[in-house]
Amino acid sequence: MVSDPTRLTAAALAEALVAGELSAVEATQAHLDRIAAVDDDVHAFLQVDAEGALAAARDIDEQRAAGAPLGPLAGVPIAVKDVVATKGLTTTAGSKILEGWVPPYDATLVTRLRAAGLPILGKTNMDEFAMGSSTEHSAYGPTHNPWSLDRIPGGSGGGSAAAVAAYEAPLAIGTDTGGSIRQPASVTGTVGVKPTYGGVSRYGLIALASSLDQAGPCTRSVLDAALLQTVIGGHDPMDSTSINAPVPPVVEAARRGDVSGMRIGVIKEISGEGFAPQVRARFTESLALLEKAGAEIVEVSCPSFEKGLAAYYLILPSEASSNLAKFDAMRYGLRVAPKGVESPSAEQVMAATRDAGFGDEVKRRIILGTYALSSGYYDAYYGQAQKVRTLIARDFAAAFEQADVLVTPTAPTVAFKLGEKLDDPMAMYLNDVATIPANLAGVPGLSLPNGLAEDGLPSGFQVLAPIQADDRLYNVGAALERLLEEQWGGPLLAQAPSLDVKEGVR
Ligand code: GLN
Q1: Residue 129, class by beta-carbon neighbours within 10 Å (0-12 exposed, 13-18 middle, 19+ buried)?
Q2: d(C-alpha 278, C-alpha 323), whole Å
Q3: Which of 15, 333, 434, 501 has the most CB atoms lying inside 10 A of its own CB?
Q4: What CA–CA distances, in Å, run from 167 to 33, 120, 326?
Q5: Could you tell me if the CB of 317 is within 6 A of ligand 1?
Q6: Count of Cβ atoms closer than 10 Å to residue 128 Cβ
Q7: pLDDT tens digit string along 346-390?
């Protein structure tokens, strides 16, 4: 029998449900209780939907009792990042400008979660419009890292990663435009996957940068991520960039986990300098494990990756400034009357609303983006950045001739202290040096925990694969996960300090 359902992986929980060891209602209630117990400290959730989650769970229990055919994750509860539209549930993207906005429709991925019988526990905290690496840019206050409550949980999807790390949810949905699934996974000791661009529908995601955005799984195991990607992935006619092909065989790959004979490429330009000493040490040890398991480690060079960050911070603000133009105080969301103006014009209302509704980071990027796109500077900035993007895609293509997958440390450091980088945008941006190239080229990437580094906090190992070869991520990820867990005697998260013992940090 199950003593504490919140400690199980999604795969184990699903098995227990099938075996009748507990009901979906019991599993969901256990997670709601856990949220009630720890989320005042963690603040992973912006909204909890106990009633909706329990109703969905009850429905699954009834279907199961009636012998209806159910999907592999039916009855396993999930948390959803607040940038994903959920019908009837507030969706704010972490911004004041959307405070209280209730979408009239579900994102395609949410439709698929509901159809597959996953009760939605609630919506998770995030940096405003997914801009950030620490969740401190949320208009609703930061999320705290369950490993150490005075540390950041990563961003922009810190809420989703923290919810999973704190056992508030076995599964969560994140979105990754430059690293917002993988970097939070890295600093919370969890697993995060950005599928191939176009692998999961963007319909119903509040867009940050449409050519980079990709939704994906946040979990505590590689297999769980594969199971979840299979539920949310696949073609969607509502998204014109959706790939019209089946989801790669990710579950089989996650169950296989065999790297013998594989060529694993270490990217020369992003594995050494700029990474904390212990993060590098864990990375080197992971490579040795993979080599012992039969993989061949090769060094590859991707010279253009060094320009990735600069190109990203022109392309992203450009697309974001255009995507955010729709928040005009006219159609939905916040509307603020300009002070001291008797009959304000539409422009004045728009300006007052955007001034009050957007935070500093959002304004910074809108200014940057509109500048880069302005007629006099378009070629010099936006045009140049697009050329770098092409070079990065070529570097990937050349590297994948020499290696089946590429690997890097996911993030340069472990979780830093809340407030530490808040006033230094450049320092904040540097968190994504290793994750951004994948978004620029559309290739898939996975991060899994590979040990404790500085201050006894988790570090992450990133695997990158060619477009539509997501299964390779899971194969390598599962192999390394097994080898590491053999060493640790269980998952890394088991070594996290318990949240049930109040330490007075905060
Ligand atoms: N940290 C990056 C940024 O601030 C990534 C954001 C994301 O992936 N949504 O843009």
Answers
A1: buried
A2: 39
A3: 434
A4: 11, 15, 36
A5: no
A6: 27
A7: 999 999 999 999 999 999 999 999 999 998 999 999 999 999 999
Residue 95 CA to ligand 1 centre (angstroms): 15
> Cβ(184) to ligand 1 under 6 A?
no
Indicate the burial class of 346 (C-beta count within 10 angstroms; 0-12, 13-18, 19 or more). Answer: exposed
pLDDT in tens, 233-253: 999 999 999 999 999 999 999
Q: Return the active site residues.
A: 81, 156, 180
Residue 65 has pLDDT above 90, yes or no: yes
Q: Are 260 and 295 in contact (CB under 8 A)?
A: yes
Pocket test for ligand 1, best of 177, 321, 364 (most atoms within 8 A of CB): 177
The pTM of this model reads 0.97
Report how far apart the first and last C-alpha atoms of the chain are (Å, whole number): 36
Cα 117 to its chain centre, rounded Å, is 22
Q: Which atom of ligand 1 is nearest to the CA of 313?
A: 10
* pLDDT 10s digits, 218-231: 999 999 999 999 99
Is the Cβ atom of 134 under 6 angstroms away from ligand 1?
no
Do 442 and 389 touch, CB atoms closer than 8 A? Answer: no
Q: Which atom of ligand 1 is nearest to the CA of 316?
A: 10
- Mean pLDDT, the chain, integer: 96
